[in-house]
């Protein structure tokens, strides 16, 4: 029997109405897998590869059979999407199919009217589309309804799976799935949809930790569509030129190349989005042309974001959205002619996802325009400017993209912030819970399997401490919400576990210099680049979010510092391959070629001095670590114990002797041979996640060691540098 023949008649009618001559290969294989079995699935294909239909055509067919059999009330299918806009879009797509099948399609998030939710609660059936936060809210505020709503689920569909693999939000979702199965007393099939997966085995473990080998991957053929790439380089900010000149030049190029079509420009931080959107809209006004360029980021109103999204879908209105990652995911915004990236993203997975927004129409190429801003070199320029690290990272990201590589999630992370959240959520759901029940639900059966019983009890004791007061213990041993815990859980903001990087106030000599988002670990003795200058961190107050700094003696600061983010070891490895190579990628413009030549020339000079431990002056040493952020940061923390100032870069550490009474090689030797290394001898930034503030310093240190630091890796790195 063919895949088409296995589908319900209403679904077959919808397929005929689309004019499809046949199902795509990935859709046919998915139909057989869904209808003939009960295993969990991962359906992975390129953007616009038919993943949604691959999952829902057979699932809707099963739901039709359920309805005809007259089974009890309850939703047939649960769809979880990361964005409200994505849910709204998928609702529209699924309504067309389900109209013929007689199944309701219910969107459920903060913008959906309460009347729609009330009707769905009274008579739950069909497909429920929901965000992780709204699903959490159901467990907390409507826990008695959970069995009624979900007892006859055939499957849970998780869209954009790759965005959840290595995130607190993904851990929250896995915990909710476990709690749902406990509440309903049945195993529910899980189907993940993704366009980008770095390690399928880790993705299978994420989807079903207790039985990853039973998760069936269905991978579509990679699209062979034409790809057009360009990387333009800019040198600015020199003696006679402001860094603003490069922004103006990029804006002019975008205006000339993108006007008259639909495009996405990923500009990074929200303030940069606003800067480029303002420049481009001003150019439209000055040329007496209709407005085509609009900002799109999470701080803007929902009405404005939806206005931009609707314009992108309207073929009559050329529209370019200058955005953060808000338009990276699978929101249907129609056919996009080009994707532009200003600066390098921090993950190849993100770059691939963004590029996949272009070239979706048959016969149209995918187009990526990358822009790299570097400093105009002076005699006093810092080594990092001379190495053109931003440009080299951009090239490395593109090369890895072409090699179809992307990052894998960290499988040893403790995720203690989200554990705190889920402890409070389960207690609220049940009106109280024993420590044993909490550990079984969240750790033994749930996603926090790296947390031992001893550590779990440490977390509980901390949450019950008088100064924290989130939970308290009744006379019978039952754990209840304390006064602070009740107030926390009752606030609407509780349901989300994620947050943007914390803004720290930067203070020098009693004067506030501004605020800086911090997503990397910092400690006294390390240096930062802020407002075009180097600063040594003197004190760090994690709870108050204050960095006390003083001017650093570590030479001239790079004109363009990097944003906060974590770079994978493989990206750094590729960067060094580029620096050591001779091939010039064909997609580089003339300026980018010149910048790359300068980078290779500087790297060759550094290697003539030394290949690993490189003296840059009487008191400054450069370490060519060839490692990503985690090992680099760990070694930097170990070195500052000896009195060094340390600045981290992609694949390098810059070390200033400062107060150290020991040479850099001797310090590395001690680190490599030490049985134990105290990375936390002074204040270190440890609070990165939403519920970290409720944990003790010891627990925060353990959380950091599980994901943001690599002690053994740093010791091995120190030993390697000495060879």
TrEMBL record:
GO molecular function terms listed in the Swiss-Prot or TrEMBL record: ATP binding; ATP hydrolysis activity; DNA binding; RNA helicase activity
Record SUPFAM superfamilies: P-loop containing nucleoside triphosphate hydrolases
Any coiled-coil regions, as ranges: none
EC number: 3.6.4.13
Name assigned to this protein: Probable DEAD-box ATP-dependent RNA helicase SA1885
Signal peptide extent: none
Organism whose genome encodes this protein: Pannonibacter phragmitetus
PROSITE patterns: HELICASE_ATP_BIND_1, HELICASE_CTER
Keywords from the named record: ATP-binding, Helicase, Hydrolase, Nucleotide-binding
Domain Helicase C-terminal: 246-403
Domain annotation Helicase ATP-binding: ranges: 32-215
């Amino acid at each position: 029997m063919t895949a088409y023949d296995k589908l319900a008649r209403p679904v077959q009618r919808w397929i005929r109405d689309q004019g499809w001559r046949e199902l795509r290969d990935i859709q046919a294989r998915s139909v057989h897998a869904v209808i003939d079995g009960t295993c969990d699935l991962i359906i992975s294909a390129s953007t616009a590869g038919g993943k949604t239909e691959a999952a829902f055509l057979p699932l809707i067919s099963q739901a039709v059979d359920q309805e005809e059999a007259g089974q009890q009330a309850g939703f047939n299918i649960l769809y979880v999407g990361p964005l409200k806009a994505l849910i709204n879009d998928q609702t529209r797509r699924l309504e067309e199919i389900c109209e013929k099948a007689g199944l309701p399609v219910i969107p459920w998030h903060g913008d959906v009217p309460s009347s729609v939710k009330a009707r769905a609660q009274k008579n739950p059936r069909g497909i429920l589309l929901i965000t992780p936060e709204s699903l959490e809210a159901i467990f907390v505020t409507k826990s008695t309804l959970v069995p009624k709503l979900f007892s006859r689920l055939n499957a849970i569909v998780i869209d954009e799976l790759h965005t959840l693999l290595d995130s607190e939000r993904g851990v929250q979702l896995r915990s909710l799935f476990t709690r749902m199965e406990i509440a309903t007393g049945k195993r529910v099939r899980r189907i993940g949809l993704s366009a980008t997966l770095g390690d399928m085995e880790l993705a299978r473990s994420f989807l079903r930790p207790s039985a990853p080998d039973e998760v069936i991957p269905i991978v579509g053929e990679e699209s062979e569509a034409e790809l057009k790439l360009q990387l333009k380089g800019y040198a600015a900010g020199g003696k006679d030129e402001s860094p603003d000149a490069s922004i103006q030049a990029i804006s002019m190029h975008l205006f000339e190349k993108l006007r008259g079509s639909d495009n996405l420009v990923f500009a990074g931080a929200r303030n940069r989005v606003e800067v480029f959107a303002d420049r481009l809209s001003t150019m439209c006004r000055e040329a007496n042309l209709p407005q085509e360029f609009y900002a799109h980021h999470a701080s803007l109103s929902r009405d404005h974001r939806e206005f931009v999204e609707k314009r992108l879908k309207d073929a009559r209105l050329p529209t370019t959205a200058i955005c953060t990652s808000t338009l990276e995911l699978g929101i249907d915004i129609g056919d996009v002619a080009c994707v532009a990236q200003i600066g390098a993203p921090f993950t190849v997975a993100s770059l691939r996802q963004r590029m996949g927004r272009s070239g979706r129409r048959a016969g149209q190429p995918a187009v990526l325009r990358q822009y790299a801003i570097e400093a105009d070199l002076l005699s006093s320029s810092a080594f990092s400017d001379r190495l053109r690290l931003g440009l080299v990272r951009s090239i490395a990201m593109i090369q890895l993209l072409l090699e179809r590589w992307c990052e894998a999630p960290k499988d040893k992370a403790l995720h203690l912030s989200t554990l705190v959240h889920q402890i409070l959520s389960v207690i609220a759901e049940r009106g109280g819970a024993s420590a044993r029940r909490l550990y079984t639900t969240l750790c033994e059966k749930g996603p926090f399997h790296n947390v031992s019983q001893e550590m779990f009890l440490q977390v509980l004791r901390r949450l019950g401490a008088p100064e924290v007061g989130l939970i308290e213990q009744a006379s019978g041993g039952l754990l209840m919400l304390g006064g602070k815990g009740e107030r926390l859980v009752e606030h609407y903001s509780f349901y989300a576990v994620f947050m943007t990087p914390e803004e720290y106030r930067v203070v020098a000599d009693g004067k506030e210099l501004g605020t800086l988002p911090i997503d990397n670990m910092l400690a006294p003795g390390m240096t930062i680049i802020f407002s075009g200058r180097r600063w040594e961190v003197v004190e760090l107050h994690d709870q108050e979010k204050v960095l006390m700094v003083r001017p650093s003696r570590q030479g001239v600061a790079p004109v363009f510092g990097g944003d906060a983010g974590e770079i994978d070891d493989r990206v750094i490895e590729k960067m060094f391959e580029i620096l050591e190579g001779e091939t010039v990628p064909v997609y580089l413009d003339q300026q980018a070629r010149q910048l790359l030549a300068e980078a290779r020339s500087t790297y060759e000079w550094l290697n003539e001095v030394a290949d690993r431990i490189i003296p840059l002056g009487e008191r400054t040493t450069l370490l060519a670590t060839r490692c990503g952020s985690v090992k680099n940061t760990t070694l930097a923390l170990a070195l500052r114990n000896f009195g060094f100032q340390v600045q981290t870069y992609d694949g390098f550490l810059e070390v200033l002797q400062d107060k150290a009474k020991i040479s850099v090689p001797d310090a590395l030797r001690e680190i490599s041979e030490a049985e134990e290394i105290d990375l936390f001898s002074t204040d270190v930034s440890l609070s990165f996640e939403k519920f970290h503030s409720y944990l003790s310093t010891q627990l925060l240190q353990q959380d950091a060691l599980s994901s943001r630091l690599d002690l053994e890796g740093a010791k091995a790195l120190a030993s390697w540098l000495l060879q």
